[in-house]
Specification:
Length: 186
């Protein structure tokens, strides 16, 4: 069942988020210590207003568990959603750490930030269901452009997005890595 995440889902969402964002987790948390990274991201997931907030997360629930999650938000709000993350980093580590958090989308985009499916539920169409829910939310909120970035080596995800109608739209630099930007016009 597709649903909106709640604050109570933070612990279930955390491992999915970590699997989805990889090294970006360290950039957002400001630490390379895995325990500290988990603690920081758990707070962001439980908070009301930032890019990782439960408010921006669509979940698929199966057998009473969060089987998959997708983070999505407006490109128009991206700078504002990144502000709490940047402010925390700047207060702890200075301006350079804060500037490492880059906005991953453009104004006018409805942006798919992250998607992950629990390995126990993979191969059941959950990613497609989450993407369909993301696309419907973008459409219902009046967006013309859906956007996402994908690692160049993630051939499976790239093929799925292509199959779903997403087209290449250049490269995007995030956390010392180049990602393929893909868009779909509604």
């Amino acid at each position: 069942m597709i649903d909106s995440a709640t604050v109570k889902d933070a612990d279930a969402l955390l491992p999915l988020l970590l699997s989805a964002i990889g090294p970006i987790a360290h950039t957002l948390s400001g630490t390379t210590d895995d325990g500290e990274t988990r603690d920081v991201l758990r707070v962001f997931l439980s908070s009301e207003h930032n890019r990782l907030s439960f408010r921006n997360i669509i979940v698929e629930r199966r057998d009473g568990a969060v089987a998959g999650m997708l983070i999505a938000y407006s490109g128009d709000a991206a700078e504002e959603l990144d502000r709490p993350i940047r402010e925390r980093l700047e207060s702890l580590h200075g301006e350079e750490a804060a500037s490492a958090v880059v906005t991953e989308c453009k104004p006018g985009d409805y942006y798919l930030d992250s998607i992950a499916v629990d390995e126990r539920f993979q191969g059941q169409g959950i990613a497609k269901s989450l993407i369909a829910a993301f696309e419907e939310r973008g459409r219902s909120q009046g967006y013309d452009t859906l956007a996402l970035i994908v690692e160049p080596y993630n051939e499976g995800a790239y093929a799925l997005y292509r199959k779903l109608g997403y087209k290449d739209d250049g490269l995007w630099q995030v956390s010392d890595g180049a990602y393929k930007r893909m868009i779909k016009q509604l």
